[in-house]
Amino acid sequence: MRITAVIVTGAAVGMLLSGCGSGGKSGSDGPAVRPPAKVAAPGPFVGECGNVTDDEVRDLGALGQITQSFKNSVGCTWQAGGIDGPSVTFASYRGSPLGREKAWVTAQGRNPESIQVGGHQGFQDVGTDGSICDFAVQLGDDFFEWSTSAGLLATNTGNPCDKNRKLAELTVQRLK
């Protein structure tokens, strides 16, 4: 009797589970079809830190003595004079549209200007006080960005976008 109860219970559970499958139609005439996800083609390799050396960043970014640096596989930051001092940051974005970044900058009330570096389109944006510049360059489905901040106690050290352009030109020249 016990075996019969186990067999009947097992059959009942099996029938319940088979009813939960996807074999039945769900009210539509055909199966749901999703468009395939877009796979971004990798752009050229920009190298660690945009293929730019610490000395080049120090000199072109007018940092003086670099007191701190941070590097990982997608970005680098160089800082001079402590947390409130000038800094330079490089970031690489794989499969991320530059247009979205430009739209975000615009949504912040800023006015990015179109630029071109080595045949690649991009934009630059100088902060309202002239102490910060974001400089982004499109590479296929990828882009990279150099960002310079003059720091909290900044004195006029020129247009920060001019510094970023020089760094971006080096990155583009050294693409792999």
Mean pLDDT figure: 81
Q: Report Rg.
A: 27 Å
Q: Which geometry do the CA atoms define?
A: globular
- Unreliable segments of 5+ consecutive residues: 1-8
Tell me what the structure shows:
With 176 residues, the protein is an alpha+beta fold. The protein is 28% helix and 25% strand. The protein is globular and about 70 Å long. The termini are far apart. The model is unreliable at 1-8 (pLDDT under 50).
List the helices and strands and how they pair.
Blueprint: H1 2-19, H2 54-60, E1 68-71, E2 75-79, E3 87-93, H3 98-107, E4 113-117, E5 120-126, E6 132-139, E7 142-149, H4 160-173
Antiparallel strand pairs: 1-2, 2-3, 3-7, 4-5, 5-6, 6-7
Quick synopsis:
With 176 residues, this protein is an alpha+beta fold. The chain contains four helices and seven strands. The protein is globular.
Keywords:
single chain, 176 residues, alpha+beta, 7-stranded antiparallel β-sheet, 7 strands, globular, disordered N terminus
